[in-house]
Amino acid sequence: MASFLEQVGARLRQQRELKGYTGNEVAVICKISVSMLFLVERGAHKPPFSFYEDVCRAIGVTMEDVLAGFKWTYIPPTQGKGDKAA
Questions:
Q1: pTM of the model
Q2: Chain Cα centroid distance, residue 20
Q3: Exposure string for 38-64, b = 16+ CB within 10 A, e = fewer
Q4: Three-state DSSP string of the chain
Q5: How far apart (Å, rounded) are the C-alpha atoms in residues 19 and 32?
Q6: Side-chain half-sphere of 69: how many Cα atoms within 13 Å?
C-alpha cells in the first residue's frame, strides 16, 4: 500500500493533469523547481503545507479537492517515558 505522502502526491499530480497543467508550468507559476514538484508528486519529499496550498492555488483546486476520499483515523499520541497517566 502506498504511503500517505505517495497518495497525496499522486492526487496532486492527478488534479494538475486534469486541469491541463504541465509540471513545468506549475513550477514556473509557483517559483519552484520542477524536480521538487515531481519529488512531492512521487511522495519522495515532505514539503511544508504551504507548498501544497501554493500548487493547489496555481492549478485552481483546493486541498479539499486533493484530499477528497481519504479516510482519516485519529490516533492519539502515546505517553512518553516518565509521563504519568491523568
A1: 0.78
A2: 19
A3: eebbebeeebeeebbebbbebbebeee
A4: CCCHHHHHHHHHHHHHHHCCCCHHHHHHHHCCCHHHHHHHHCCCCCCCHHHHHHHHHHHCCCHHHHHCCCCCCCCCCCCCCCCCCC
A5: 19
A6: 6
Ordered structural domains, the chain, with CATH: 4-67 (1.10.260.40)
Q: In terms of C-beta density within 10 A (0-12 exposed, 13-18 middle, 19 or more buried), how is residue 66 classed?
A: buried
Task: Give the whole-angstrom CA distance, residue 49 versus residue 24.
Answer: 21
User: Residues, the chain, total?
Assistant: 86
**Digit-coded pLDDT (tens) for 49-83:** 999 999 999 999 999 999 887 776 767 888 766 55
CA distance 15 to 17: 5
